[in-house]
Amino acid sequence: MKIGLFSVIALAVAAIIIAVAGPFHQSGTRAERLEDKSGALAASQSVGSPAIASLGTAGSGASGTAAGASSAASSSAASSAQPAASSAPLVKGGCAVSPHQCGYPDATNTGVPASVKLLRVPGQISRGKGWHYDSRGWVEVDGNGAVLRGLYIPYDLDISASNVTVTDVEVVDTGNGFGISLRHTNNVTISHSAVSSPYASGANRLQVGIKDIYADSVNTVIEYDNIWHTSTAVQISEGLVMGNYIHDMGYTSGDHLDGIASDAGDSHGLTINHNTVFVHFGQTTAVGLFEDFGAQFNCLIENNLIAGGGYALYGGANPGGAPTSNIRVVGNRFARIYSKHSGYYGPFVYFDAHKSSNKWSGNVWDDTGKPLPA
Q1: What is the residue-wise DSSP string for 143-194?
Q2: What predicted TM-score, i.e. pTM, was given to this entire model?
Q3: Residue 292: inside a domain, yes or no?
Q4: What are φ and ψ of residue 306, in 5° steps?
Q5: 372 inside domain
Q6: Number of CB atoms found within 10 A of residue 138's CB
Q7: What domain range includes position 77?
Q8: I want to staple 127 with a disulfide (CB 3.0 to 4.6 A). Which of 108, 132, 140, 256 is the partner?
Q9: 110, 192 Cβ separation under 8 angstroms
Q10: Are 333 and 301 in contact (CB under 8 A)?
């Protein structure tokens, strides 16, 4: 009788593993990236390739739009003390198993707090001081000093003013646009908000969650936001990106998947601090410094929990590109929830450790806490 019970349990476990595991996908990238340039997802990888699976439903597309934000905790929980990279796992199996247990962002401590009641635009409210709903199909913020709070916006949110605060706002959008776009702005803060598409794949996924359109905005703060079903979550080259949960990427054929991406350095500097970024595809990156529009410099990537992509991190020193400077990668945890390398090909690439102003320090494997040298 005991032998029969153990056999049943073993078969059940095997079935669960087969159901959860999926093929490790790979698709095209920008011209100077290392992966396949075709832009099409491979149907499968050869036997022995690391499997990749969905992260589950916490804060993901499975939770829906408002429900994803509603699962978030209060603002005070999101701003709790940030852990430093440890020489040992902070929880069994690593912080990626349950990021909030290590103090990292996840669905429990980012996005719109559950206590906040949202007003739908334009059905319940269509304008406020410094912003209005445009009947052509977006919300425009064109008044300096505008504050948007407690709104549900099923359209693009376009910001062309300065000293703007967006907090406790949920943006739900689809297609080849941008959930929140910044145009020539100064001092915009987007906090405790959610940006997503209802669709995980196909043309209705959202192309970019938050984007600095002309790469000339300054003093931008993107903090404690929950972003999912985008092919790129945050695209910016200056400011502060802190405490965000980026996960369950959206994909359609030809997409390049980036969690947080910078296309060039900026004299104002970019800080990417204490984010959880999971890219559950085997292409491109969780955090990427690229040189599409210029050299990379003045960037601090610190205390993040990252996994996935072709490489979990791109360090900016693209072959044939301009030399990088003042790129500091400090105290990050590289999780192996999708691949034994963190990213499909490896944990990081294109970091110039020989440049004296660049720094690689305190980075570890998430599941073991062992150091990850440059």
Answers
A1: STT-EEEEEEE-SEEEE-SSSEEEEEEEEE--EEEEEEEE-S-BSEEEES-E
A2: 0.80
A3: yes
A4: -135, 155
A5: no
A6: 16
A7: 22-365
A8: 132
A9: yes
A10: no
DSSP sequence for 216-276: --BS-EEES-EEESEEEEEE-SSEEEES-EEES--B-TT---EEEEESS--TT-EEEES-E
Number of neighbouring beta carbons within 10 Å of residue 113: 20
Question: How many residues make up the chain in this entry?
Answer: 374
Q: How many angstroms separate the CA atoms of 341 and 157, rounded?
A: 37
The phi, psi pair for 66, rounded to 5°, reads -65, -35
List the structure tokens of 36.
Answer: 């396949």
Q: What are the Cα distances from residue 237, in Å, to 52, 196, 210, 262?
A: 30, 21, 12, 5
In angstroms, the CA 27 to CA 57 distance is 24
> In the numeric block, which tokens belong to residue 22?
């999926």
Total domains present in the chain: 1
How many beta carbons lie within 10 A of that of residue 135, not counting itself? 8
From first to last of its 374 residues, the chain has per-residue pLDDT tens of 334 444 433 444 344 333 333 322 222 223 333 443 223 332 222 222 233 333 333 333 333 333 333 333 333 333 334 554 445 667 788 999 999 999 999 999 999 999 999 999 999 999 999 999 999 999 999 999 999 999 999 999 999 999 999 999 999 999 999 999 999 999 999 999 999 999 999 999 999 999 999 999 999 999 999 999 999 999 999 999 999 999 999 999 999 999 999 999 999 999 999 999 999 999 999 999 999 999 999 999 999 999 999 999 999 998 888 999 999 999 999 999 999 999 999 999 999 999 999 999 999 999 999 999 99
Domain assignment present for 10: no
Residue 80 lies in a domain: yes
- Could you tell me how far CA 200 lies from the centroid of its own chain? 14
Q: Are the C-beta atoms of 91 and 83 separated by less than 8 Å?
A: no
d(CA 309, CA 28): 11
